[in-house]
Structures are given as C-alpha cells and as structure tokens.
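Thread: quick sanity check before group meeting

JM: Hey all, I'm pulling together slides for Thursday and realized we never actually wrote out the predicted structure for the chain we discussed last week. Dropping the sequence here so it's in one place. If anyone has concerns about the input, flag it before I start.
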Amino acid sequence: MKKTFLVSFVGGMTTGMGNGSVFGATLMCFLGRGQFELWGGFGATAYNPTQFTGFIDWCMIVFGLAFTGIMMIALKRHGQLEAKKGR
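JM (edit): ok, ran it. Output follows.
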C-alpha cells in the first residue's frame, strides 16, 4: 500500500481533477453562471463554494479524491491478483 500511494495519489488527482474541470465546463455551457451571483476570484476566494469558480474548484477536489480512492482500490486488488499468480 505504501508503494502505490504516490502513484495512486498523482494518477487519481490528475484524472479526477481533469474530469472535475470538464464537469465545470459542461455546467458553465449549459447553465452559464446559473444562480451564482459572483464568478469567483483569486487566492482564497477561488475556493469559496458560493461562487462559481469556488464551486468548480471544490468539484475538482472531490473528483480528484474519489479517483484517488478508486486507484488505491484498483492497485491493491491488482497486487493481490499478481501475488496469487506468482504462487
């Protein structure tokens, strides 16, 4: 598990945050700003979930963490299969 954490984290966050940004772009195309009064900002205001940019940033973080979990489960199960195969 320790050996695969970095690979899982980098691969999961890269893939998940990429998918989160596509989700945000799709949301923007279909809804515009929707009910969000403000578009967002720089620094800490970029992570304010009541603003559009903050909502998308949080979506990207959640997608990234979810894909990291998926990667960790997949690599753990792959390791178990490889261990059985080597017997």
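AS: nice. DSSP finds two helices and no strands in the chain. The mean pLDDT is 85.
JM: adding both to the slides.
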